Amino acid sequence: MKNNLCRISGNKLIKINNFGKQPLGNGFLYEKDFADEYFFEMETGFCNESKMFQLLSQPDPNKMFHENYAFYSSTSNKMKDHFKKWSEEIFLSDNFNKNSFVIELGSNDGIFINNFSEKKIKHLGIEPSKNVADVAIKNGNNIITEFFSSRLADSIIKKHGKADYFFSANVMCHIPNILDIAAGIEKCLNTKGILSFEDPYLGDVIKKITYDQIYDEHVFLFSAHSVENLFNKVGMELIKLEPQKTHGGSMRYTLGKKNEHKKDDSVHYYFEEEKNNGVDNLDRMLEFNKDVLKSKYELNKLLKRLKSEKKKIVGYAATSKSTTILNFCDIGPEIIDFICDTTPIKINKFSPGKHIPIKDMDEFSRYKPDYALLFAWNHAEEIFEKEKDYSNKYGNWILFAPEARIL
Ligand code: SAH
Ligand code: TMP
């Protein structure tokens, strides 16, 4: 991005965090590729006009989303349940009927859109990462394997007509040309059409100091203020806000074309909440940076102490988020013996930047580490349930947010 300008208002961004050189969050790699690994300077900024928290620069989307994309949404059963429940809410809503046409942006392996195709509802997924899109296609979903844009919107409308619903989860915050995306969505929707999307919520990130939500793919961290400012530019407005427990605290934003829907009370409520908690406020963002630096210091201190006591420490789940923690806190294989994960495409590779080996879950059970640093803290409930044996008999969990601690 030129001159660190806000992608919504065009104003100069005020710098908030500097995470230094970072590799791709999902750039798990083989040893033969270490020498060619890609790094970029990861800094964040805040715009006082649009209220958008964003990366100053982001790698080219083609580097991140391709035929070997490492994140398969359906690795989490809780997320499968979450999307099923969301689809059930939609089926019951006043705006929905069996002839509704539904579009999903970033449908990945079909975790959400499966719920519509199974019910024979007219649907279309847009997913540029071919390997994950292929899984959804195999399961009977209609998917376009392309990046969404307002140009693609024109060809979708021509071929399929306008949509009643446009959904997306954990995708909008990935897309730098967001004004073009917003314009494309507005075009795709019919007059009463509804946009509903979820993303990690800035209010939760600054409160819980979950700065690992900041990595190459997450170019934005949204709030009610910034989403309203963004979509107002294309003639849309917020009509409902619903906080979610997923990904450590997300917000579901529901929008419609201006003056076409009644606004739910939640819109006023969360605008006031954000003002009270500084989510719209530069000073609060600068305070967040201080919290991040303190959190880094405390995690290093804890891990170094455990290592000096010759404890065996592993990472649990090779999440994209862990890339920020490991590289920013300078934690490598000298501290973490390996990271275990369930995703076949990650196993036997190495973590981006710090090159910690990634192993399968059998290795976790066999190795019996003294400490497991939980990188997938957003799936803690599901993981603690699975790993009762480890917790009860062998070891301890380490969490790093809001502060580094042993459970
Ligand atoms: N919705 C899923 C996947 C989130 S991961 C879930 O919540 O689990 C983000 C996804 O967005 C990836 O599958 C990526 O390929 C896709 N994506 C990134 N840029 C996109 C774009 N411009 N248009 C459509 N999808 C995009
Ligand atoms: P994410 O944080 O980028 O969403 O990635 C979640 C990662 O966590 C993914 O690589 C799969 C892994 N994982 C496990 O290894 N075990 C689990 O029980 C769960 C829920 C996730």
Which short descriptors sum up this protein?
407 residues; alpha/beta; 7-stranded mixed β-sheet; 6-stranded mixed β-sheet; binds S-adenosyl-L-homocysteine; binds thymidine-5'-phosphate
Beta-strand residue fraction: 15-25%
Q: Distance N terminus to C terminus?
A: 41 Å
Bound molecules: S-adenosyl-L-homocysteine, thymidine-5'-phosphate
Q: Total number of β-strand segments?
A: 17
Q: For the CA atoms, what is the radius of gyration?
A: 21 Å
Overall geometry: globular
Biggest β-sheet, characterized?
7 strands, mixed
SS-based class: alpha/beta
Task: Let me know the average pLDDT.
Answer: 96
Share of helix, binned: 25-40%
How are the strands ordered across the major sheet?
6-5-4-7-8-11-10
Q: Count the helices. How many?
A: 14
Q: Can you walk through the features of this model?
A:
With 407 residues, the chain is of the alpha/beta class. Strands 6-5-4-7-8-11-10 form a seven-stranded mixed sheet. The protein has 14 helices and 17 strands. The protein has helices spanning 61-64, 77-92, 114-117, 130-138, 150-160, 178-188, 202-208, 224-232, 265-277, 282-308, 320-328, 361-367, 380-386, 388-394, and strands at residues 14-22, 40-46, 53-55, 101-105, 122-126, 143-144, 163-169, 189-200, 220-221, 236-244, 250-257, 313-316, 339-340, 358-359, 371-374, 396-399, 405-406. Bound molecules: S-adenosyl-L-homocysteine and thymidine-5'-phosphate. Residues 61, 65, 69, 71, 73, 105-106, 108, 111, 126-129, 132, 147-148, 169-171, 174-175 line the site of S-adenosyl-L-homocysteine.
What's the topology here?
Layout: E1 14-22, E2 40-46, E3 53-55, H1 61-64, H2 77-92, E4 101-105, H3 114-117, E5 122-126, H4 130-138, E6 143-144, H5 150-160, E7 163-169, H6 178-188, E8 189-200, H7 202-208, E9 220-221, H8 224-232, E10 236-244, E11 250-257, H9 265-277, H10 282-308, E12 313-316, H11 320-328, E13 339-340, E14 358-359, H12 361-367, E15 371-374, H13 380-386, H14 388-394, E16 396-399, E17 405-406
Parallel strand pairs: 4-5, 4-7, 5-6, 7-8, 12-13, 12-15, 13-14, 15-16
Antiparallel strand pairs: 1-2, 2-3, 3-9, 8-11, 10-11, 16-17
Residues 71, 75-76, 317-321, 341-343, 346, 376, 379, 382-383, 386 line the site of thymidine-5'-phosphate.
